[in-house]
Amino acid sequence: MKDKERKLKPWQGWLLFGGSMVIVFCLGLLAASITERRAEIQSIYANKKDKIAPFESRNEMYKGNYPREYETWTQTADTTFRSEFNGSQALDVLAQRPNMVIFWAGYAFSREYTSPRGHMHAIEDMSRTLRTGHPGIDGADDMQPATCWTCKSPDVPRLMQAVGVDEFYKTKWSRFGSEVVNPIGCADCHDPETMNLHISRPALVEAFQRQGRDITKATHQEMRSLVCAQCHVEYFFKGDGKYLTFPWDKGTTMEDIERYYDESEYYDYIHTLSRTPILKAQHPDFEIAQQGIHAQRGVSCADCHMPYISQGGVKFSDHHITSPLAHMDRTCQVCHRESEEVLRQNVYDRQRKANEIRNQLETELAKAHIEAQFAWSKGVTEQEMQPVLKYIRQSQWRWDYAVASHGASFHAPQEITRILGSGLERAMQARIEVARVLARHGYTQEVPMPDISTKEKAQKYIGLDMDKLHKNKKQFIETVIPQWLKEAKEKGRLVAAR
User: Fold this and answer.
1) What is the Cα 121 distance to its own chain's centre?
2) 452 in helix, strand or coil?
3) For 372-394, what is the mean pLDDT?
4) Cβ–Cβ contacts within 10 Å for residue 416, how many?
5) pTM listed for this prediction
6) Of the chain's two ends, which shows fewer C-beta atoms within 10 Å, N or C?
7) 452 near 98, Cβ under 8 Å?
């Protein structure tokens, strides 16, 4: 028996035909969209409006060729973002935690320490802080070298090219006041001609070379973190020439860096109360981030702090560099499926736990400094105080290493908790040792503690004349800085007067 030939019903044929036409039409739209997007992207990079010269530090000169990136970069001036722990505002950290004034007795950070703002504020914040002093006012000279400008402006690579790296570092800070005027921007991370990511500061390249590594072989994804690592790292000013150096020769962990400093007997300052040779941590963001799960999974700094945006068929990095919590739909939720609130509280929980230990450490460490000062007043010997000073140095290094890094308790929460716990243990050991020293000298009572409950009281206790400092800085801001800007405008260093 022969199979009967099946025929489609008329309506089924028309349905099949119509469906095919819809599919063909959609494929045509997709092809047209892809072609249009490719053409738009090609036109952006092939038909640049402006020729950008090598070492061009004026960020406005990049606007014509890269309007999207430039527009988002200008948003780093915004200071409205807030989280449970700071945000983008310049908050007075010394007022929040006066013990920090005690930690930095004898160092400029005891004068002023505010939470960081966005990149567009880099020059303004550097010029206005009490930490850079008031050169030229009331007979004052520079208290800082030009090395302090290194990470604040794309004018720095231009100057290094012009005068030489060594000469730049050993020059006085105010000498370049009319030259370093453009805030952190395009040329810091991009080659002006190709816009490829590049390393514009020598210290990172030199650190790689001493480790036997070739930074030119870094992948693009690695470069999306390494351009940040030019500045967001631990560093120190080496020798009389104040040469900016990364202490990575023995490794990049907290203990590796401490061992490097100890073997060279380096210290940033002698504490005026306890007489401890103190290490001042900068902001070891890169080193700590490498200890965390995100970096270990290949996530770069830019993935979270510069998430992608799509506009008009073009995908580009958001140059509004800020906390990932500000744009969680484009940062955390790209990988994680939990709600924003769950993810945000997850971050806060880590920060709260780390801060609990941090607060205990700050209380014990402040007491250790003051008790050591009291011991010196009783005539103890340097030999007797060596164990005390060693513990204080180690404790403060661990505290500073943990708190100076931006976002450390999220980047590597287990590592930061470990470091803070180690710092707390050493602070308590320092107090035990100083009690033993005092007991040998016949003093067995509690050491009297001064009232350092406010920033003002703590600053007065360590001998700072804040009224005079503020008065001189005000005069500096009103007279010297305007002159710097005027000179910069006359030299063509600024596109528009600021």
Assistant:
1) 13
2) coil
3) 98
4) 29
5) 0.89
6) N
7) yes
